[in-house]
User: Which sequence fits this backbone?
């Protein structure tokens, strides 16, 4: 692929995840027509999308951002995850097109106001919501989670060639004991199984970033390091 697509770096900017660090990303040629099939190849090489853009961290002095995915055949829920499934057995799921929905937007705003205070995301507009979550080329669906007809979570999920990509999940901040983020991943795993997919991509994992620690709690997690995927627990210094 690198022989047919040119990649470009952006300018160095403050890292969003590690205070005091500088970050840089690489992007495919913006004149290259992006398709879901092309993205399916890129995500297998550690890329991620944000809106219509596919990118991968390419920082000059840091390699903390590690792409991770769950190998579906190697996943087995642990005791805590089985308890999460049991606690949420009354929640129903339904799939919807990735279109603007005011009820979703209101939940998104409440979620950000609780989870990202002062981070620049906690006062979203309709346009910023659309710009972030939608894409003109991706095959994306919204998984609605409802408890007795009350919307409690939405998982924005990309369908790619070999699996699903958990793009973004937001949920009711007043229900912390339900572990709705974990529940959403467990349901995306089941959806992947239903479609015969082999992977669930989780984006980037940073070992010392507390907000990302949940990703290493799933069995079957693989990391993209040195240009190939390998079980995360085989990485040097993994804890």
Assistant:
């Amino acid at each position: 692929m690198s022989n047919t697509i040119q990649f470009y770096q952006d300018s160095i900017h403050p890292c969003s995840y590690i205070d005091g660090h500088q970050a840089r990303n690489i992007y495919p040629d913006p004149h290259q027509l992006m398709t879901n099939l092309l993205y399916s190849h890129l995500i297998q090489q550690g890329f991620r999308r944000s809106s219509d853009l596919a990118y991968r961290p390419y920082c000059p002095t840091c390699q903390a951002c590690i792409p991770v995915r769950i190998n579906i055949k190697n996943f087995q829920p642990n005791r805590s995850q089985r308890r999460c499934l049991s606690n949420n057995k009354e929640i129903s799921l339904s799939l919807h097109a990735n279109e603007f929905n005011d009820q979703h937007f209101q939940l998104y705003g409440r979620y950000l106001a609780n989870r990202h205070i002062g981070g620049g995301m906690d006062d979203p507009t309709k346009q910023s919501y659309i710009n972030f979550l939608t894409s003109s080329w991706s095959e994306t669906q919204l998984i609605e989670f409802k408890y007795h007809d009350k919307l409690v979570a939405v998982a924005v999920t990309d369908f790619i060639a070999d699996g699903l990509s958990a793009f973004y999940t937001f949920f009711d901040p007043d229900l912390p004991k339900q572990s709705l983020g974990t529940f959403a991943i467990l349901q995306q795993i089941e959806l992947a199984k239903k479609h015969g997919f082999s992977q669930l991509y989780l984006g980037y994992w940073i070992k010392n970033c507390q907000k990302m620690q949940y990703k290493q709690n799933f069995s079957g997690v693989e990391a993209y390091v040195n240009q190939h995927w390998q079980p995360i627990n085989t990485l040097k210094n993994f804890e």
